UniProtKB/TrEMBL annotation:
GO MF term list: ATP binding; phosphorelay response regulator activity; phosphorelay sensor kinase activity; protein kinase activator activity
Organism expressing this protein natively: Lysobacter silvisoli
Protein's name in the database: histidine kinase
GO CC term, one of those recorded: membrane
Keyword line: ATP-binding, Kinase, Membrane, Nucleotide-binding, Transferase, Transmembrane, Transmembrane helix, Two-component regulatory system
Enzyme Commission number: 2.7.13.3
């Protein structure tokens, strides 16, 4: 019966129906000549041929019924996640296309399943071996997953899955509990002064399978912060050593020269040497004062300051073109530490004048946003390349030969102490824009 598998279903249906129709009609005519009533021949022919028709139909469609059962079974396997089944069918036509499409679907599902399994293995390996402690907590505050770092940090190496997260915190060191009680992200220290570890806590909420879960990340920062601290100290020492040598070397040389002039009685040349010594000493004094101001910046003392009076005081110390878009009266009043803000803007305006910009191209623009005051210091100097823009706000970073690298860093420190921020960007047509936002 395999030759039937190669025929279209419509042709099989038509052939069986035509054959039985011809045979049935002939048998009915012949029986009608033998029986008293014509209808009895038709009934007897139908009674004789109907069982044969059922038999042949079932015989013809038995392979197809088996195929349909196999299709149903493989689909059930796919639904259960088993994609190892395939079907074999020698026929063509509609059933052949159906089987071929089904097998292609199975291959695609197998490939996707294999890819997902490999990705899951890779992800699990990465999660388990990352130094960041990771815990997944379900809505009932039970730990669903904990990697190796979390087990080592909070469970003495034992599995944490299934445990109550709150009970786990009760057994954790007190700084850990306090960090969670504060809520949100933050840093905390565990241990004493001689052996302390610094950690960063991050908490994220998301929906998993329609339920709220919390992902807890604990990252140890001790080694990284220690390395950064050492690098910072090395840089500070290099900058201070450079400045001290630039001032002390000529002071020592001029002091020796002054002593020789006194010994020779050449007093007329002494004022020049002494003036140079004074200049270098004052430069060194200013350098040390700037470092002390940056290191000991106090918390800002907020007070109501009228912009017009503040900017007039600022203009008496450094030149700039003012573009103010704030109205007079109450709208022209802000709350900030006047001394700190003055120091910050003085640094920015002096940098603008030292950028190579013409004095008339140094502008200060003041405008009010819905929630803050925005102060822009603009120049038409040489601007900054990408590398300088990325590091200009870092302490001790300077491209000037005699720069301390504290001007922009101090301005950033003051802005952030007020709850604001500072940004640098190059202007179209050349020059730099230093933008400072101060919350209202």
């Amino acid at each position: 019966m395999r030759w039937l598998q190669r025929l279209p279903l419509s042709l099989i249906y038509g052939a069986i129906a035509a054959a039985y129709l011809v045979v049935g009609a002939a048998l009915a005519v012949w029986l009608a000549t033998l029986l008293p009533q014509p209808w009895m021949g038709a009934a007897l022919a139908a009674a004789l041929l109907l069982p044969l028709l059922v038999y042949h139909v079932r015989r013809a469609f038995a392979p197809m019924n088996s195929l349909f059962r196999a299709l149903a079974g493989s689909v059930a396997s796919y639904r259960d996640g088993d994609y190892s089944f395939g079907l074999s069918w020698n026929g063509k036509g509609d059933l052949g296309e159906l089987v071929a499409s089904h097998n292609l679907l199975g291959e695609a599902l197998r490939e996707q399943r294999l890819t997902l399994v490999q990705r899951e293995l890779l992800l699990d390996t990465m999660v388990q071996n990352t130094p960041v402690a990771m815990l997944l907590v379900d809505p009932s505050r039970r730990i669903v997953h904990a990697n190796l770092a979390a087990r080592k940090m909070l469970g003495e190496g034992r599995r944490l899955e299934g445990q109550s997260f709150e009970e786990l915190l009760m057994r954790a060191p007190e700084p850990v509990r306090e960090a969670f009680e504060r809520g949100g992200d933050g840093m905390f220290t565990v241990g004493d002064e001689d052996n302390e570890d610094i950690y960063h806590l991050a908490r994220r909420l998301f929906r998993l399978n329609g339920r709220h879960h919390e992902l807890v990340l604990l990252r140890q920062l001790t080694a990284e912060l220690r390395r950064q601290e050492v690098q910072t100290w090395k840089k500070v020492i290099r900058v201070i050593s450079h400045e001290l040598n630039n001032s002390l070397a000529p002071i020592a040389s001029l002091a020796h020269s002054g002593a020789e002039l006194v010994r020779r009685g050449q007093y007329d040349k002494l004022p020049t040497a002494l003036n140079t010594i004074e200049e270098r000493a004052r430069h060194l004094e200013g350098f040390i004062r700037d470092y002390a101001r940056f290191a000991k910046l106090p918390a800002p003392r907020l007070e109501a300051v009228e912009w017009s009076r503040f900017l007039a005081q600022l203009r008496s110390q450094v030149d700039f073109v003012y573009d103010g878009r704030a109205a007079r009266g109450q709208e022209g009043v802000a709350r900030f530490d006047a001394a700190q803000m003055e120091q910050s803007l003085l640094n920015l305006l002096k940098n603008a004048h030292e950028s190579g910009s013409k004095p008339e191209d140094v502008h200060l623009v003041l405008r009010r946003t819905p929630t803050a005051w925005r102060i822009d210091v603009l120049d038409r100097g040489t601007g900054m390349n990408d590398a300088v823009l990325a590091n200009a706000l870092l302490p001790f970073y300077s491209t000037k030969r005699n720069g301390t690298g504290l001007g922009l860093a101090l301005a950033r420190e003051i802005a952030e102490a007020h709850g604001g921020r500072i940004a640098l960007l190059n202007r179209e047509g050349g020059g730099l824009c230093v933008s400072m936002l101060i919350p209202d």
